[in-house]
# Entry
Amino acid sequence: MKVGVLALQGDFREHLTTLEQLGVSGIAVKTAQEINEIDALVLPGGESTTISKLAKAFGLFELISNRIAQGLPTYGSCAGMILLSREILDPASGQETFGGLDILVRRNAFGKQVDSFESDLDFHGIEGKSVRAVFIRAPWVESYGAGVEVLASVLIDGVNHPVAVRQGKVLATSFHPEITGDSRVHKYFLDQFCSDLVK
Ligand code: GLN
# Structure
């Protein structure tokens, strides 16, 4: 099984390290040929505007979007969630997304005062202790379609905001499990979305 981590910008190395902990040697991908050869894709945290601009500049945007639409198992963290959304509430000018999840996201949703914070989350489908979630200028899911399953939420001012969602072969989290040393979200992705692939 070839798991590619999109390596245009962002914390792709941390995702590779986390996959390594699970015995999967991921591949840093940044060419069309590499993206054509992978069986699963991880979109890292970083800056979603930059990643989408670079994907366009390198002629990868349509390819990635098409592969996701055709059922490529894909996981995105933070900027990766934004890139997988159907729509961004407050996009940077000209910012487009690959799509894959029927969600509307709000960028930098947690507000300028609280650029980053940590929280312990109940993550539906992950057993044991709660998942330590690190949010860094993170988005949340503002609204979502009927096909989307919410796996984790954060309660702010009495309102639950989804921060982990799945639909079809696509998983996304607002937070960064790749930087906490806890590989259970990646394991969840591999077990739930990639188990039919030859290992
Ligand atoms: N705020 C960033 C964006 O809009 C995401 C931040 C992150 O990935 N940590 O892309």
Q: What stands out?
A: Helices lie at 12-21, 32-37, 48-57, 61-69, 79-84, 184-193. Residues 45-48, 78-79, 82, 107-108, 136-137 surround glutamine (CB under 6 Å).
